[in-house]
Write a sequence for this structure.
């Protein structure tokens, strides 16, 4: 009850609201269409030269999200449908978007997931708010760890120069797996490579029938730890009909072309080399994905000459290729070729398995039961030798032998 009539209840409510601290609660939810402009602004603030390719891929995904948002809302009404196939989550604090995370499944069984990007405005942070921003990134990551129950392992790739993001990932348990290097092969080198005629008599096109061969090639071309983290299977190298049709439609819209082939070794009945070349109509470097068997590294000049010939038929531009620190032959060949190192990244992973603390079983234990069998006091030694109890008199032993030879007669 208010004893002071000079203060009305509304003014008292305003006084209480003004004295109460602002709400710093962070709400993490799925991305909505109304968040599009705020996320675009956050991406523009977070743009750096080290994260240029990462934010560019995010921009493409945001455009797809905006275009397909209506169908996504309709798909939620269907039974057994994925509520949010894009897996974009935002952190909201005081009705403002302060962070975003984008994740996606890495393999077909969805046992390994990939963190594609985490956006936080580190540049606008004050010193006293730096810890708060790191907490926002950690909460975004932990939300994905707890929400996506299918994931057993998390994977990501971060530029070694992006110290803020690298520190965020290390703080949340990610450990390095491999060092990746992005190379740029200039158009002049591509023209020189195209002059060489490749010797690849068993170069065959890729289809779903070769999934077993490509799976074996992928397995043997990487260390066991990466093989365990990637957790790929034969179905990861097959393309379903619906996905293939959608990919063709997307390439038609973006005006891109994809060429892929593999090298077959007839004696061992195995694939020893594979490449996938993605060409763009716009002024953009061609992207190359290549896999070579460790025992057939002589294929590098032949495969690069083959791809240079494909590029020569189109608009000649530079070629982008990736190498890992466990592929020294590839890096040595690219250095001799004169390719330029463009970016260094770190491949990191985190497992969701944690050691469980052992708990004591409830109920009566064996050690508790043996407590009652212990002597109540310390035993006192006596002079009676314990072997005397086992001695047998000669008369008793003689009678026992007679009983063995002449057993007693049964009485009626």
């Amino acid at each position: 009850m208010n004893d002071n009539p000079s203060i009305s209840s509304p003014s008292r409510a305003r006084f209480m609201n003004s004295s109460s601290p602002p709400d710093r609660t962070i709400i993490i939810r799925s991305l909505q269409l109304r968040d599009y402009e705020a996320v675009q602004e956050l991406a523009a603030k977070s743009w750096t030269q080290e994260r240029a390719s990462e934010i560019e891929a995010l921009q493409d995904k945001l455009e797809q999200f905006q275009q397909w948002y209506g169908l996504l809302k309709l798909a939620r009404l269907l039974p057994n449908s994925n509520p949010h196939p894009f897996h974009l989550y935002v952190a909201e604090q005081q009705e403002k978007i302060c962070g975003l995370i984008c994740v996606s499944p890495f393999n077909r069984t969805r046992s390994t997931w990939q963190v594609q990007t985490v956006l936080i405005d580190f540049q606008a942070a004050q010193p006293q708010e730096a810890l708060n921003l790191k907490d926002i990134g950690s909460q975004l990551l932990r939300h994905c760890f707890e929400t996506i129950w299918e994931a057993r392992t998390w994977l990501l790739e971060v530029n070694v120069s992006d110290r803020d993001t690298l520190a965020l990932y290390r703080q949340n348990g990610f450990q390095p797996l491999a060092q990746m290097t992005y190379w740029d092969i200039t158009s002049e080198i591509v023209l020189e490579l195209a002059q060489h005629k490749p010797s690849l008599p068993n170069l065959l096109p890729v289809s779903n029938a070769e999934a077993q061969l490509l799976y074996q090639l992928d397995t043997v071309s990487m260390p066991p730890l990466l093989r365990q983290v990637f957790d790929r299977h034969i179905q990861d190298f097959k393309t379903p009909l619906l996905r293939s049709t959608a990919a063709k439609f997307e390439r038609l819209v973006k005006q891109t072309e994809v060429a892929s082939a593999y090298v077959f070794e007839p004696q061992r009945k195995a694939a020893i080399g594979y490449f996938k070349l993605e060409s763009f109509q716009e002024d953009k470097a061609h992207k190359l994905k290549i896999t070579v068997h460790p025992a057939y590294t002589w294929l590098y000049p032949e495969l690069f000459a083959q791809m240079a010939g494909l590029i020569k038929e189109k608009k000649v531009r530079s070629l982008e290729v990736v190498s890992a620190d466990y592929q020294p032959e590839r890096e040595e060949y690219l250095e001799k070729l004169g390719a330029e190192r463009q970016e260094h990244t770190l491949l990191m992973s985190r497992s969701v398995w944690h050691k469980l603390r052992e708990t004591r079983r409830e109920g009566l234990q064996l050690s508790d039961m043996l407590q009652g069998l212990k002597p109540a006091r310390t035993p006192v030694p006596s002079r009676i030798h314990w072997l005397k109890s086992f001695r047998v008199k000669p008369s008793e032993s003689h009678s026992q032998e007679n009983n063995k030879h002449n057993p007693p007669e049964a009485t009626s």
Observations:
- The CA atoms of residues 32 and 69 lie 9 Å apart.
